[in-house]
Amino acid sequence: MKLLDRLLQRWRFARAAPFVPPGSRLLDIGCHDGTVFRRLASRLSAGVGIDPLAVPTSDPGAPFQIVRGAFPNDLPTSTAFDVVTCLAVLEHVPVAGQPAFVDACAARLKPGGVLIVTVPAPAVEGILRWLVRLRLVEGMSLEQHHGFAPADTVQLAIAAGLQLVTHRRFQLALNNLFVFRRPLPPS
Fold it and tell me: Helices marked H in the chain — which ranges?
């Protein structure tokens, strides 16, 4: 990753962090190298990261485990999590697979748990292509973007039984943060 890639990544983490309750068990989908665990470690009790390009952790006793594979099929545990993050991930999921992907995210949440999603605005794709040409960013799998519309995020989450907590734009309105909650069961 280049410096600008890392700065943009840190900006996403900073936007997500306030929605991660202290002591959370976190599932990070698209974890890359596990940076989210290093950045948010003080807020977490444990976590699992999954990414097709990840280098798996070898210490089964470590609080944070990294799994190489695709979500949800390659996630070995059926553990429920307090928080599931998909930061700059959903736009890489083929459109036909997005409903099942979001359903699987919702299924991994404990009641009251939160799903945190960031997705870029449509204009970002063109900007990223220029930044890649100028060698300012690596583009992080830009070829896998599926023309995702940020507004679809809310519909996908509601269909999965989640409730919208907040939607905010950041990075000069070129990125979107969505936070959803799995409802508590009726008492």
Answer: 3-16, 35-40, 98-107, 124-133, 152-159
User: Can you tell me whether residue 67 is helix, strand or coil?
Assistant: strand
The whole-angstrom separation of Cα 103 and Cα 83 is 14
Closest CA to 27 of 50, 2, 59: 50
List helix spans (H) across 19-81: 35-40
In the three-class reduction of DSSP (H, G, I as helix; E, B as strand; rest coil), residue 175 is classed as strand
Amino acid found at 182 = R
Q: Is residue 124 part of a domain?
A: yes
Domain total in the chain? 1
Rg (C-alpha) for the chain, rounded Å, is 16
Q: The domain spanning residue 51 has which CATH number?
A: 3.40.50.150
pTM of the model: 0.87
The tens digit of pLDDT for each residue in 31-48 reads 988 989 998 999 999 999
Q: How far apart are CA 35 and CA 31, in angstroms?
A: 7
- Per-residue pLDDT tens over the stretch 125-158: 666 666 667 666 665 555 555 567 888 999 999 9
**Would you give the distance in Å from CA 91 to the centre of its chain?**
10
The distance of Cα 52 from the centroid of its chain, to the nearest Å, equals 14
Q: Does residue 19 form part of some domain?
A: no
Where in the sequence is the domain holding 53, given as residue range(s)?
3-13+24-181
| The two structure tokens encoding residue 22 | 């202290």
Residue 18 covered by a domain? no
